[in-house]
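Reopening this one. Same input as before:
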Amino acid sequence: MKARIDELTVLLEKYNEEYYIKNASSVSDAEYDNLMRELMELEEAYPEYAHPNSPTKKVNGGVLDVFTKITHKRAMLSLGNAYNYEDLMAFDQRIKNEVGISYDYMVELKIDGLAMSVEYQEGEFHHAVTRGDGEVGEDVSHNIRTIRTLPLKLSEKREIEIRGEVYVPKSEFERINSVRRAKGEEEFANPRNLAAGTVRQLDSAIAYERRLDAFWYYVPNAIELGFTKHSESLDYLDSLGLKTNHERRLFHTMEEVWEYILEITAKRPELPYEIDGMVIKVDDLRLQSRLGATAKTPKWAIAYKFPAEEVVTKVKNIFLTVGRTGKVTPNCEMETVRIAGTKVGFAQLHNEDYIAMKDIRIGDYVVVRKAGDIIPEVVSALPERRDGTQEKYIFPKVCPICGGRLERSEGESDYFCINLECEARMVESLIHYASRDALNIDGLGDKKVEFLYKRGILSRIEDIYTLHTHYDEMIHFDGYGEKSVKKLLEAIENSKKNELDRLLYGFGIRHIGEKAARILAEKYIELDALMQASVEELTNIRDIGKVMADSITNFFALDSTKELIEYLREKEVNFTQHVQEKVESMFTNKSVVLTGTLPTLSRKEASEILMKLGANVVSSVSKKTDYVLAGSEAGSKLDKAQSLGITILSEEDLLKEAEEYEK
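Same output, byte for byte:
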């Protein structure tokens, strides 16, 4: 029986490669199914002869309780981003300046999926790990082995790590959503979300049914394997039976690369999978090693991101939402459209003036895009498509939640509900207090806060610290249970240890964001000292203006605030700030403005690094500005900085200084 099991294993592996990788088959589906059934029956009868990576392992479902953490042998870095021709030419010039010799670029499609690392040992599939934080990922082998195009046994017995992108083809995405529609279930937003969610399923039968696929595009230890070019390593993956994307080309100049990008941009809608850009890599592996990497990105590669997609849709309604400070924000409900792979049905309209300036009316056709490929934004209305049924929007003068009066102060663009007991304000205040950047109370998100508020269990901040008295009641709520309630109560207890800046931000004092909260906490160290500060004293602090100072003193003068603080003191909530020792760097005591989209860092991440290096991060450019840290699409701030002769820095400059400080 062992001989027959061996024979069937080899045969089925051969047929899998023919069908899924070479798009050809030498056997009928019925014959293939019969062979697979025979192998499964033999393995069940003689498990001692079954191969660890048998083709049947792709079929059998198995449920895991948790994902094991695995440390990557080599860090999985992110790519820096380019958004236009100028960004690519700047990248090209940096490399020319660094290496000073001729080189080629390999250009590949940037598949919109989930990054994955797979390791083979002695030619046998060993494990698959997600990117995670770049250093440590999750073992999702049980789901990745279900990918039909991924061989569980290579044509050579060797140890090799490969990296690539796991994705769901467009046709499969549509098939799955059509089934869900028929069942009345919510559809998946886009193929990428579907792929990411499927990879993290505990039951591998779900992954098998959803037919994940993957392209493999990188061999981290290619030099150790004897290769001198990245392109050679990709050809080698092909020879091993691994699926690579053949829509790749070598070019000698960035001008040629750009022409290819334009070609692919035109072909993008016809591709059978989603892509969100192109990846440009220096092909010479020795030059890659010489160029090296920053803490987050390789310096020898960059991702060109396609520009924001714009679509036309129709405004169905305009409605208001009320925030924690009482600020009223208009939003529009639109006919649902797909933008950048995601369904969009709503967009924020900011304020009354924004609606008037763009002349957006109910019933209008409008141009919509995703700002930064994330936030839906109404670009403009299309008045030429009006037929007379459109209605101008008249901004209400009463709150849509409590019916209280709305006020708009002189010089401000926003309306505010002034009713302190407004349900929307109270709920949003609780959500803000528990949010990640404030007290970070895991398990007390938007839906939980709204649910507990409606139950009468949670109506003000003080109630958060009495939730333990409702334990017996809460464990019987849908979606709670003993385990989740205990975890929530633990998170509440842990939140008491947060530093003062988080507490100040959590209070939701008007005009006081994260940065101002940190400045105040580091200046006064103790909450009691801040409470005694006068307006004059506060305005002498850098970046704390008169409006902010008035807001702070007014907040601490309220009886309700004093009662809250005494209550929190009794509950042993921390009121102090640990101040880190100031460092000396090129940014110490310098004013820095951030503008544009950075290649790898978010605005918040860059700000935190700058502040650790002693910088004062400000929002607008003036003669007093020392540096401007600019990314792509920097706009008017960059123009003003250049006209004033201010030094312009890149993300790379920032990371280099951070690395020097860490040394």
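So the earlier flakiness isn't reproducible anymore. For the record, The mean pLDDT is 88.
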